[in-house]
Amino acid sequence: MRRTALLLAAGLTAATMFTPAVAQAATCNGYVGLTFDDGPSDAHTPALLNALRQNGLRATMFNEGQYAAAYPAQVRAEAAAGMWIGNHSYTHPHLTQESQAQMDSELSRTQQAIAAAGGGTPKLFRPPYGETNATLRTVEAKYGLTQIIWDVDSQDWNGASVDAIVQANARLTNGQIILMHEWPANTLAAIPRIAQGLAARGLCAGRISPQTGRAVAP
Ligand SMILES: [Zn+2]
After folding, report:
1. What one-character-per-residue DSSP string does 36-84 give?
2. What does DSSP assign to residue 88?
3. Per-residue pLDDT tens digits for 122-134
4. Distance (Å) from CA 186 to ligand 1 centroid
5. Which domains are seen in the chain, by residue range?
6. Which of the residues 92, 151, 153, 181 is marked catalytic?
7. How big is the CA angle at 209 (ends 13 and 148), to the nearest 5 degrees?
């Protein structure tokens, strides 16, 4: 009895924690994977998490290990806001130009930094610049990481306008993943319209399955 009650209480707490401030569409006809790379930071993470929460969105945050180590409270804030946390290397190098030992260091140190910060042990890895090769995939496998590239590039890193970022999200179909970043001001500004556009199409923000690499129900 006591155990059941505790589990129930834990479930209720989690449900309350992740209840979006704005109601999502009643029916999810499909799920998309929103991803935000290159954080966390004191400068950008709080505002991004607020915007996502206020608009009922959950996302995958591909953190750099060096920033997870520098801003552990922001890693915890991401997890507390219901986000999923992935590995985006430690220092964001062009990994395909590095040795297997260097790749190993980049991935393993990031796993440790995110876990030490309280973000759990990532199961998803996004290579910087989307650059990968067979050696890197071997290292990913060693750490149980599923490589996630993207279906749609929002171009937010390349100065895309708010309109362009919203339109890129409008191209997403069920299961697909979009590349965004935590630092562009236009990305932050686009969040409410991204949420409205997805809701209008019956799509919901999902988690990325480590098994399939596709967006699925949270
Ligand atoms: Zn990046």
Report:
1. EES---TTTHHHHHHHHHHTT---EEEE-HHHHHH-HHHHHHHHHTT-E
2. -
3. 999 999 999 999 9
4. 17
5. 25-216 (3.20.20.370)
6. 181
7. 125
- The reported pTM is 0.89
The Cα 180–Cα 187 span in angstroms is 7
Backbone angles phi, psi at 8, to 5 degrees: -60, -45
Decide: helix, strand or coil at residue 180. Answer: strand
pLDDT at 26: 56
* Residue 4 CB neighbour total at 10 angstroms: 8
* Catalytic residue of the set 37, 38, 44, 88: 37
Residue 22 DSSP symbol: S
37 is catalytic: yes
Q: How far is the CA of 144 from the centre of ligand 1 (A)?
A: 20
Location of structure tokens 């965004």: 180
Q: For this structure, is 181 an active site residue?
A: yes
